[in-house]
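quick one before i forget lol
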Amino acid sequence: MNIAILSRGENLYSTQSILKAGEANNHKIAVIDPTFCNLMIENNKPIVQYHDEIIDDLHAIIPRIGASNTYYGTALVRHFEAMGLFTIASSQGILQSRDKWTSFQILSKAGIPMPKTTLGMPYYIEAFLKDFGEKPVIIKLIEGTHGQGVILCNDYKNALSTVETLQTANVKFVMQEFIAESKGTDVRAIIVDGQVVAAMKRQSKSDDFRSNLHRGGFATKIELTTEEKNIAIAAAKALHLGVCGVDILRSKRGSLVLEVNSTPGLEGIETTTKVNVSKNIIEFIARNK
């Protein structure tokens, strides 16, 4: 089978891990940098040109689309979808998961439990903040990633000054309740083809509330509860993602989905759990082609 990894970072751990897994399973697998793809429609047919060659021999794609390349990256995925190729993450699923508010709306429609969240509208912001009282509130940029663009405001006054600054700069954001009992930890579950294949608990540094490994946190392998497995699988299904990472907070009122990542990093999860997630991804493709 001919498979392409859509990635701008050929030497990144995740890209190399998937590449090796594909080759180990006797597939012809290559890395395609979306930056050098030219998308065309000719004679009512979608065409992808990579450098000087027309791509017409692929069976499946593995999108590794970075947040900074969302628009063009998803346009490329959509073009391949129009050509009839199988993808582990749909263009629509990538777009919807990248916009935090959109993903929260879709998850809520599917009945997925989440922290209390509100969209940072330009008007009546003081009234919205009062819904949180004097408790700490998390402010998240709509398109932030790896813990960037996440702000913890300890009280109403601090939150108000922060959102006023963001509004002045025309920055889109959401506000979310702070789950204090999580104590800087969350659970990352990796979903492949509707199943949890690996899970880890992430712990933040002592001086940070964000558990992202990119922010210096550390991880340990865990077994998810039945509730956590069901919620993670349902979240992936709601966003139409065959492969994704689902971040879950353990709160007093149960498991709460924090975020769904359509391009989860594999280094942390594979190193921590010793599970070959990349092999699971390749086998997922093989089952569907």
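fyi DSSP finds nine helices and 16 strands in the chain.
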